[in-house]
Amino acid sequence: MRGTWILLFSLALGGCGLEGPRVLRLSLPQAELTAEAGARVELPVEVEARRVRARLWVEGLPEGFAPPPLPLEEGKRTLALSLLAREPGTYAARVVAEGDGLRREAPFQLRVAARPESVLEGVVYVGVAQALAPQGVGGGIRPCPEGCPGKPLGGGWYRVPKGGLPDRPVRAQGGEGEPLFPRQWGLALAGFPEAWARGRGEGVVVAVPDTGVLTAHPDLQGALLPGLDLVDGDADPEEPVVGGLQSFHGSHVASIVAAPWNGVGMAGASQARLLPIRVLDTEGSGRESDLILALRWAAGFPVEGLPPNPHPARVVNLSLAGAGPCSAPLQEAIDEARARGVLVVAAAGNQGEDYRDYFPANCRGVLPVGAVGPDGRLAPYSNRGAPLLAPGGNLGLGLEAGVLGAGFLPGQGMGWRHLQGTSQAAPHVAAALALLLGMGADPEAALGALLAGARRGPEGLLLHLPGALLALEGGGVALEVAGSLELRPGEAGFLPVRVLSPTPVPVEVHPEGGLSAYLSPNPAKGEAVLRVYAPEATPPGLYRVRLRAEGQEAVAEARVAQAPEARVLLEACPLSGACQTLTLPREGGPFRLEVPPGPHRLLAFLDRDGDGALDREEPWAEVQVSAPARGVKLLVR
Predict the structure, then answer these.
(1) Rounded to whole angstroms, what are the CA distances from 592 to 392, 585, 623?
(2) Hey, CA dihedral for 212, 446, 308, 133, is it positive or negative?
(3) pTM, two decimal places
(4) Is the N or C terminus of the chain more exposed, i.e. has fewer CB atoms within 10 Å?
């Protein structure tokens, strides 16, 4: 009986038919997708395949958007197709399932939006002293705490170390002369009288960090604002009379800038207000740390231990110089002042050498000034290569070929004397900027007009106020490139470029010798970054990239060499994905990276041996930032 039932059951199964109908169904729960460029997006797909050998794929999208075809398993299920939104646009596409003569299609639309710009911008500084804190300068003159050792200085202040700031010597850039009251040939040579009909610089504050001033001098009365003394540590910038070879350098420089037109003595090149800061002793010597504090205080920054400055300067005149490169703390102070719109003018130096070997004239963002005599020729003592020349005197042509300024004459008291130097040239330029600022020009337009309107001579550009006024009316455009590049084939480098203009202007970039280069941003106003790339096959040599805007031109130089050169490498790494590496000059500089939004690790190091790797003895710095971010600082030490 058991065998009969088994047979009947087998016959019943055979009578039902094992193959049945073939089934292939396809549908999309979501027919419209959106994504940002570069992102992945999941497309849900509902599919059913029965008794069909089929495959699933996407048609209608550009190459690289869709995954490869996918074989379908028996049954009904929901799948997720991963699409890569590579480029912005709107794409009409379809999902296709096909097999054994059956084909099903389901249309969908993919909208890919451009990813918002995400950048990391900042500056890499190299060579910061170990004790320098990145958040501030510190040190200097501070209030004497109760019970502090030593004797407080005048006004309840106390002298303390500068907290790791450099203390290289700085000296006034001027000479001595005999007392006399000649004509002021420098004003006529630079065209100041023609400019006075348009503006006098009234209300503009010009800071003069120097040896201090003779506050009782008749040619400084009414021009001086409350100042500071960082040598003795009080609020009295008076230069003491000690005799000897004392030149009263600060009073001489200040009177060139803005001796009042009061019917007494000389005429200042402007009628600006003077903010005196004593940073040099009576012999014209001082310390870089005091200069850094003076810059920050003059620009209106709060400095620990110093009283607030109620009269922030718009121009700072630095008629002083020291040997060596611009230090990182000094560069940072200048960068911060320039970020507030403060213009910084510096004497090129009196050594008859390349000005780039002397600070602060070689600092980024400073306008260095060389000196000419009454004949308009470069003075023998003046350092070479400065972007602007101005009357500084040449006593080799006679006493009257010096520059007149206020001083103290032994045995006679207050008077006037002739000196020569780039110290005397710089205040002419500071006064010219005060005139342009007083006429309503913004800092970049004033600086651009001064350079664009200068007269071209055999040794460089000579200050010319009428030309500056014309340039200001025409937009005041000028270009400045800071530094040069040392590259090896296959490397890219970056240089800071300043586009001096009241409005953004398009800049043409013309590299030579097979180099590639671009400026970012472009059109530009103010600070920009020039990227220069030397392809692998670039022969060694000196190459130039010419920048042109509104008829003005600047040249960036890039030397391509195969020998390893020290440089700064900057590496930016997201939490996931590939890192980016930039090459900067060995002294660091500005950088701009286009990166995906989100956290990044920034590592900068001085690659001394050119091997591209951080070695044990090479200085480095690291910070964590989240993109987009601007104003990032790395202090390599």
Answers:
(1) 39, 14, 15
(2) negative
(3) 0.62
(4) N
Between strands 89-99 and 102-113, the pairing is antiparallel
- What are the tens digits of pLDDT across the range 211-264? 999 999 999 999 999 999 999 999 999 999 887 678 899 999 999 999 999 888
Rounded Cα–Cα distance for residues 570 and 577 (Å) = 17
Domain 23-113 has CATH 2.60.40.10: yes
Print the SS3 string covering 188-217. Answer: HHHCHHHHHCCCCCCCCEEEEEECCECCCC
Which residue has tokens 């590299």?
511
Backbone CA torsion sign across 29, 30, 31, 37? negative
CB 133: neighbour CB atoms within 10 A? 12
**341 phi-psi bin (left φ>0, alpha ψ -120 to 50, beta other):** left
Summarize pLDDT for 278-318 with one digit per residue, the tens: 999 998 899 999 999 999 999 999 999 899 999 999 999 99
| Short-list 463, 447, 469, 593, CA closest to 525 | 447
Is 3.40.50.200 the CATH number for 181-473? yes
CATH number for region 478-560? 2.60.40.10
Tell me how far apart the alpha carbons of residues 132 and 165 are, in angstroms, rounded to a whole number. Answer: 7
DSSP H helices, 360-494, are 422-438, 443-452, 465-473
E strand map for 550-610: 552-560, 567-574, 580-584, 588-594, 598-607
User: What three-state secondary structure class fits 357?
Assistant: helix
> How far apart are alpha carbons 374 and 119 in whole angstroms?
50
Sign of CA dihedral 213, 285, 389, 203: negative
- State how far Cα 623 lies from the chain centre: 19
**What is the rounded average pLDDT for all residues in the chain?**
85
3-state SS, 509-522, equals: EEECCCCEEEEECC
Tell me the C-alpha distance between 185 and 462, whole Å.
14
Quick check: helix, strand or coil at residue 220? coil
Cis peptide before 360 (omega within 30 of 0): yes
Rounded to an integer, what distance in angstroms lies between the CA atom of residue 74 and that of residue 26? Answer: 13
How far apart, in whole angstroms, are the C-alpha atoms of residue 212 and residue 281?
8
| DSSP assigned state of 131 | T
CA-wise closest residue to 427 among 321, 540, 268, 541 = 268
Rounded distance, CA 540 to CA 415, Å?
Answer: 59
Find out whether 575 and 595 touch, Cβ atoms under 8 Å: no
Nearest 10 degrees: Cα torsion 327, 332, 335, 337: -110
Which tokens belong to 348? 């090129």
- Please answer whether residues 71 and 58 qualify as being in contact, where contact means their C-beta atoms are separated by less than 8 angstroms: no
What confidence tens digit (pLDDT) does each residue in 469-489 have? 988 876 677 788 888 999 888
Active site residues: 210, 249, 423
Q: What is the average per-residue pLDDT within 137-164?
A: 35
Instruction: State the angle between helix axes of 443-452 and 422-438 in degrees (0 to 180), rounded to the nearest 10.
Output: 120
Nearest 5°: the CA angle 478, 484, 488 is 140
* Residue ranges covered by each domain of the chain: 23-113, 181-473, 478-560, 567-627
Tokens 């993109």 found at: 627
Q: Do domains 23-113 and 181-473 have the same CATH topology?
A: no
